[in-house]
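note to self: dont lose this again. the chain is below, predicted strucutre after it. 205 aa total, dont forget to put it in the shared folder this time
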Amino acid sequence: LGAPGPMAPGASKKERQQLKALDAVVAASARAEENSWKETDKRLLAKEQRAQEQAAKADARLAARRDRQSMEAAEEAALSGAGKDRLQATKLTQAEIARRQALVAAAQAQKQRRSEASKGTVPQPKLEPNLNRDSAVVDASGLDDAVAALRGIEGKAAGSLTFAEFERRTVEDLKVEKPGLKKSQVMEHVLKLWARCPDNPARAA
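---
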């Protein structure tokens, strides 16, 4: 809307009011249009600023990548240009690393042993009696050897039963109770019963 022209000298009061209202409408419209341009400018500025920031970040990443590539190239050149001294230094460094790893492992093992020792004393192992001189103990590898060894042991205590007597009596009973048993099965039964027999000298000891 364009601004209204100058008011005519003989204009009525109503016409003056209409022209004043029209002036107000034109001014408001102009302010609104100006504000819209300002908002558009702000959005454009923000968009441009974001684009500039992204471009700056991309440039920084590219520069960092180029720096890294140049450093890697310099390291490769230094490694390839190094002579025998460089290789020996590398070997010494690897040996030092291995030595340190061994020291760390030893320290950890010692720490673990101390931790286990601090938790409590190590239980005393159960002591077994020395059976080398005990004549009631039979050391044999097979069934026949065990029977033969038991037959040779005589009862030391007064009134104790010998294995030969127990065997003779038990074999007769087993033949009656279980006639289908083989000889080896009969002897297995005899040995089991002898181990539980109260007249066994080994149980009395």
